[in-house]
Amino acid sequence: MEYIQTILFQISASRLDEASQAAGLLAELDEHRRFLKGQSGFRDIRITRSINNEGNVLVVLETQWTDDTSLVRYETAEPNAAAIIRKHEGLLVAGSLQVLDMEALRTETSFKAEEAEEKEHAAYARLTLPIAIPLGILAFALLVIYGLSRVYLEIGGDGAVALAAGMAIGVLVVSFALANSPKAPGWLIGGVVGLAALALMGGTIWALANEDESKAAEQVNGGQETETPTPGGETPGGGTGGGIAVTMGDNKFDPAKITVSAGAAVTLNITNGGTAIHNMRIAGPDGNYNTDDDAVSDPNLVPGGSEATIGWTAPDAAGEIKFQCDFHPTEMVGTITVQ
Ligand SMILES: [Cu+2]
Predict the structure, then answer these.
(1) Which of 19, 94, 113, 334 can pair with 256 through a Cys bridge, CB separation 3.0 to 4.6 Å?
(2) Ligand 1 center to residue 273 CA distance, Å?
(3) What's the sign of the alpha-carbon dihedral 170, 171, 175, 176?
């Protein structure tokens, strides 16, 4: 804020020349300017006079100060403008001297500060939307691509197709409704988008959590299988073992009948030539699935085009041992003849 001392006085027409001469009142006030420039808080001085060629001349002297303390300090010590004018009292119209302390309500500098703030605000508003909207759309698109792919993978098969179709219809219906109500308030559109984003995020988190669980379960299964001791053990006289190639198709084993010598250690080299996920589980000598003497393909799940192995030792006694694919246990079965 700005503080101003305003001094008003009138010089009578007949004394104007005297006031204007060298070392006169006006010259002394000019000189006072040098003193003012050394004062702390001093800003500016302005001396104006009324424009009239006849009659008394009104003179206005203003000194501007940055704060009221500086103004008061100036007023209460000498030299100051009011004291200088009083020394030349004879030149003045009697009773015309007035000294006023004023406070600026509005100044160009204060307007400038406000305008700069407004401009800054406008620039902020101008920049935010053009940056925020594309970023938001990009984030949403990435969420759709990443999140939906996770969800579809986790659901798999017909469920994913049904979900995709349902969502496509949902998007069409909502878009149709919004396009047909041009007066739809912003919060409604924002709410629909927000809900969609929330549902997507929820689905993504659900899919990621499920994926981790099934991975963990798979690892546990794998671990158990490798720890399971192979029953029987190698018998020196037990015929040739080695590798036996088995191809899995949709949904069958080829060959479905395998013959091995009693006590032979064999490795089944399994290839999934089909497109569906399969596996191979050998029931073992007890003839039952999901018991301790089972041998299961490693890895347990064999996607289409992948390979797996089973290290297995045939029992010493001759007999028939069955095997199956856990995913297609009715059609995808076979037997190992031990002789
Ligand atoms: Cu199968």
Answers:
(1) 334
(2) 11
(3) negative
- Cβ < 5 A residues, ion ligand 1: 251, 278, 325, 327-328, 332
Report the separation in Å between the CA atom of 252 and the middle of ligand 1, taken as the mean of its atom positions. 7
Check pLDDT > 50 for residue 232: no
What's 14's DSSP letter?
G
User: What does the pLDDT read at residue 302?
Assistant: 93
- Alpha-carbon span 252 to 237, nearest angstrom: 33
Ordered by where they begin, the domains of the chain are 3-105 (3.30.70.100), 115-224 (no CATH), 242-338 (2.60.40.420)
Dihedral pair phi/psi, residue 247, rounded to 5°: -110, 135
Highest mean pLDDT, choosing among 94-103, 105-114, 162-171:
94-103
pLDDT number for residue 241: 53
Q: How far is the CA of 210 from the centre of ligand 1 (A)?
A: 23
Portion of the chain with pLDDT greater than 70, in percent: 91
Output the CA 248–ligand 1 centroid distance in Å.
7
Q: Facing residues of 219 across strands?
A: none
| Rg from Cα positions in the chain | 50
Residue 236, pLDDT > 50, answer no
